[in-house]
Amino acid sequence: MTDTTWLSVSELAQQVQTQSVSATSLVEKSLRLIDEHSSYQAVISIIKDRSLERAKAIDTAIKQGETGGRLAGVPFIAKDNFLTFGSETTAASNMLKGFRAPYQSTAIERLEAEGAICVAKANMDAFAHGSSTENSDWFTTKNPHDDTRVPGGSSGGSAAAVALQLTPFALGTDTGGSIRQPAAFCGVVGYKPTYGLVSRSGVVAMASSTDVIGPITSTVADTGLILSCMAGVDERDGTTIPSDKDSYDTVKPAGLKGKRIGIIKEFMPENLDATIQQKILDIAESAKAQGAIVEEVSIPSLAYALACYYVIVSAEISSNLARYDGQRYGFSHPDAQTSEESYVMTRSEGFGSESKRRIMIGTYVLSSGYYDAYYKRAQQVRTMMINEFEKVFQDYGVLIGPTAPTPAFKIGENIADPLQMYLTDIMTVAANLVGIPAVSIPVGTVLDLPVGLQIMAPQRQDRLLLSVAQSFEEVLA
Amino acid sequence: MLYYDEMAKLTKDDVLKLAQLARLCVSDSEVIRYQDEINKILGYVEQLQDIDVTNVEPTSQVTGLHNVVRKDVISPSSSTPAELLQNAPEVTEDGYIKVKRMIT
Q: How far is the alpha carbon of B99 from chain A, nearest alpha carbon, in Å?
């Protein structure tokens, strides 16, 4: 192992458990790498003291005969919208600068219970509103493959961190592609679980009917292990569903022979970047060579997915962000004289322009007289999309297509045109609207920039999806 | 590729009204930009009007959960009132959040 790369998460944990390396040395290595690669600006804050204390405690516990947990001593980075001890939690926003979480998110607590150590918080678009990290109120993260390009977003810092190997894995959140699209842009694995599989308690809410939490890793096997440590019902999040009785970390690649795979026609339009199109078709051929049955399938309502998504998500954002009023926590404008002034001045200064735009659109589509035409209609289209996916899944085990219509774009290329930026999510939003699991795995490069293959499976078929994704990994290796 | 309805839509006054409803203050130069951007986005989502949704039920919860309830009992909190108040902009000595004047 060279000094800048990591073994797999399970191997690292085993080394710590058997005392061939110490948790302290792994944390020190991460902290050093974060410092060495600071020019990419993947990280907002570093959790130094607490992570070293935890590492020491884990090393001591193992010396005294304890196991240390399934993730013993493995360092990771969490997106800055996870509430964590030992650092600020800002969601990369001016609104929450200085905020110290009074409790930790369930996902972090569950990973810590297995011995993992959160060493830093990753950059993101403020409140996860964006696809490039350019909407961060801190700075823009640079793509590790080309520092003139974006890492994707909104979990761009997390994806860049894993691509730079600052830690063996990172956590992101995915409301409309915010784990998968940056994973594709940075050449790593990004996993969006079935809606409700991982508790969102203690994560800054964006759109509650589509928000999910998931891992960003170097391999699908690592993703299965991290998922198995986080998944399952949490009484602090009423939308959680039980995890599979068989654990996600025991999934093996079952091979593609006889697997029925659909290529989504709507994700391969004629005007798609020709090199990305070719990449996906080449993969389909490789899958066929392994004995898979790969056929084109059509889901007509996908043409409306992005419009449907931006109505529903803006509505839920306007509702979820109403809580930032400067009264109980977060930024509070010092010059306000009355409560009303305090709300308005705090929100006007604390929110960036993308968040304000989404709040206003959400306010509009929920307002009396427009609710039926926009919000209710979008939810009806959502039902149609769910039905169409269910029908296709009767014939095909998984669906594939590109994760994003282009490789990583240039910093500044799309930021002036919000609608153009929204269009970068066109292939990822459907999985969120339908609640199904979806993963992006790296499938090589086009002009030296990584390309992602997106694979989707039916709701609660996360084990199937992990198995097929591992099989694709083997084919591509 | 873009669907842009030229008939759209919001006037400057509409944008100012939306901002007021959302407790946001937008400057004169901002209002022109937001008007343009919001109208473009609303023009794009206008395509939803083309779909026949007769007799289609709306979906707001995708995994089919209904009324998830818990027993109405107090469980210990992971944080103390003092810890929770540390993030408040202004607190009173006896542990309340202090707000600005309500009546003007």
A: 6
ipTM, 2 dp: 0.92
Q: Structural domain of residue A146, as residue ranges? A: 9-250
Number of domains in chain A: 1
CATH number of the domain within which A171 lies: 3.90.1300.10
Residue to test with chain B: of A380, A389, A390, A424, most B Cβ within 10 A: A380
**Half-sphere exposure (Cβ direction) of A305: Cα atoms closer than 13 Å:** 26
Which B residues in the span 23-82 are in contact with A, Cβ-Cβ below 8 Å?
23-26, 30, 34, 37-38, 40-42, 44-49, 51, 53, 56-63, 65, 68, 70, 78-79
- How far apart are the C-alpha atoms of A444 and A441, rounded to whole Å? 9
Please give, rounded to a whole number of angstroms, the shortest distance from the CA of A420 to a CA of chain B: 9
Q: Is residue A281 part of a domain?
A: no
The tokens for A300 are: 């007509």
pTM given for the model:
0.96
pLDDT digits (tens, 9 = 90+) for B45-103: 999 999 999 999 999 999 999 999 888 998 888 888 888 899 999 999 999 999 999 88
**Side-by-side strand order, sheet with A75-79:** A43-46, A117-122, A75-79, A169-174, A212-217, A189-192, A438-446, A449-456, A398-402, A260-264, A293-297
